[in-house]
Amino acid sequence: MAVRVADGAIVEISPWQDGFSDSGSVVDLTDSTVMPGFVDAHVHLVFGNGDDHGSTRSVVENAGLDTLGEVAARHAIECLRGGVTTVRDCGDKGFVTLWLRDEVAAGRRPGPRILAAGPPITTPGGHLYWCGGAVASAAEIAVAVQRRRARGVDLIKIMASGGNMTSGSDPLTPQFTDDELRAVVGAAHAAGCQVAAHAHSTEAIRAATAAGVDTIEHCSWRAPDGTLKVAHGSVVEIVERGIHVVLTMAGIQRGLLSDGADHTDALQLVARKNSDTGNLRDDFSWARDMLAAGARLVLASDAGVRLTPFDLFRLTIRCGMEALDLTASQAIGLATLGAAEALGVETAVGSVELGKVADLVALAGVIDDSTTHLGPIRQVWQGGCLVVQDGELII
Fold first, then answer.
1. Domain ranges for the chain
2. Which terminus of the chain is more solvent-facing, meaning fewer CB atoms within 10 Å of its CB: N or C?
3. What angle do the packed helices 65-81 and 96-105 form, to 10 degrees?
4. Global pTM?
């Protein structure tokens, strides 16, 4: 097959024929597989990607906004190097990623297309409160949503449960009431803005689903005692409402990949310590059940959190293959078109189709139903321009 690109868009897709190249230059990728640019639906561009939660968090807490801007800009380049041409940033400090989003869009900085949430809405002392988005009342929630829309965010991020990264917050319990979550969703949707809800606890997932959020992040189904507890009624509601579930295959999931070829012994130790079963596939049996029930799952990285660099998104896709019993093509679909649909940008990106933006990734080798590994990235094209060659930025 051949893909013709003009003015940054895909204008023809057809079998290769003599004469196809008459009107332009040709890039021969017959020893590679060409696919859409990856869409990473959950990253934190200002986070430090340290070896532990403390060092990762300290980058955000102790740096000024100018420094955080440079951190985010560096990580944006790493995203491109990893084949990611669209990202959704799910929480920053000081609205730094909105500045970077606009810099990239104007062509002044290299990076993927960015959808930015700004500081996540949380409770005093709650998960990621150190990003500056804590609210203490229904009135403050309304102001927080209005402020973010006035700043031009692309989505509202709310911490429906606590999280592991913030000492003192509890990932096993909700942080907001049902009424408060409904108020956030109502205000955001009235302003034409999606809501992404971070939710580890089963009760928080239930409440976020009932409130009508657009995406549920992590969706770990944790009971108050930390054990797995899937609320099957909520799964049915997730399917009926068409809510996207964003599975974050971060470093500790990558550390459970069965062959161990792409991670260190130290990462494997951390991964096994944080695993229910010691096995990636067994850890995600609930996600396979959700997929079978018709839930719209998305593969994302949570890049920026501990042990999760931005340039290894292909390992997130491999985690999806192993955890969900998917072929390479199916997993890639959850990280391209599936993710684009979750973000509401599927008319522009996420697949190789006529009229879409020419964001393309070429992976070494032929990918088919027998593929178990995704080869290194040969090229990344953004808007019809070659931006990465053999893992290195060339613009």
1. 36-353
2. N
3. 50
4. 0.97
| Bridge partners for 217 per DSSP | 198, 246
| pLDDT level of residue 65 (50, 70, 90 thresholds) | very high
Neighbours of 218 (CB within 10 A): 25
Both tokens assigned to 76: 């944006």
Question: Who's near 162: CB < 8 A, 6+ residues apart?
Answer: 126, 127, 169, 170, 171, 172, 173, 175, 200, 201
Question: Residue ranges of the alpha helices (H) in the chain?
Answer: 53-61, 65-81, 96-105, 138-151, 178-190, 202-211, 232-241, 251-254, 265-273, 280-283, 285-292, 313-324, 328-334, 337-343
Torsion, CA 168, CA 250, CA 344, CA 286, rounded to 10: -90
* Position 261 pLDDT exceeds 70: no
Query: Both tokens of residue 146?
Result: 């209005």
**Average per-residue pLDDT for the chain:** 95
- Tokens in use for 35? 């696919």
Residue 124's nearest CA partner among 94, 166, 152, 164 is 166
157-215 pLDDT, tens digit each: 999 999 999 999 999 999 999 999 999 999 999 999 999 999 999 999 999 999 999 99
Assign domain 36-353 to its CATH architecture. Alpha-Beta Barrel (3.20)
Q: For the residues of 364-386, what is the DSSP string, one character each?
A: ES---TT--SPPPEEEEEETTEE
